[in-house]
Amino acid sequence: MANNKFCIIGLGYFGLNLALNLADDGAEVLAIDISEERVDLLQDRVSLAVTMDSTDLKAIKSLGVKDMDAVIVAIGEGFEASINTTAILQELGCKRIIVRAISPVHERLLRLMNIQELLVPEAEAAEHLASRLLLPGLLESYEINRDYSIFEIKVPKRFVAQTLLSINLRTTYNINLVTVKRIVKSRGLLTKGEKEVVDVIGVPSPTYIFHPEDILVLFGKEADFMKILELDQ
Questions:
Q1: Residue 130 near residue 136 (C-beta atoms within 8 A)
Q2: Domain count, the chain
Q3: CA–CA distance, 108 with 205 (Å, rounded to integer)
Q4: What is the largest CA-CA distance in the chain?
Q5: How confident is the model over 205-217, as a mean pLDDT?
Q6: Above pLDDT 90, what percent of the chain?
Q7: Same structural domain, 85 and 153
Q8: pLDDT at 185 over 80
Q9: What is the mean pLDDT of the chain?
């Protein structure tokens, strides 16, 4: 099977790390930015990194972006360049265009241009931070619907050295344990694009004994999840 091919336009923190993650996962990545300094950060990490003005139709066309599986416009400084770049990509007939929206006005203009796939990483980050602030002890959360979510927490001290069977999460707390993970290597600096490395135990058996370094991945309702967070308070 041929590798997926992506073009990332705009290499700020978001675009840079998106390009690195895709490349590390085996995709062919074309990275474009007007800043030579930013492009230099990726020269040896992606298939091709080019210093170019993405609002130059002839220049963009020469790179064959039309043939990419997706073009992601990650420009984050003002939205004029983003709008002009998006219009050029539409003119070239790119099959899939994904654009980072940086303000409500920018988002409205993109929707008027019939761009269906919008990214708002700042809003998503704010939502995750709000959850962590309101639920002390929460490491991460992923909403499935209005009722159910997946939560990640550090194992409560009361669980350490006990088995999953003895704690009986499902009956006592109405929560299911999806898996358990441990961090092997912490995430590096954003500009290096280093990933967090974790060990995952798979589906926990009833005889699994909780370790002090465990991170629990739980599924259930927030109200039930709160009962577990309260154990260490």
A1: no
A2: 2
A3: 50
A4: 67
A5: 92
A6: 59
A7: no
A8: no
A9: 88
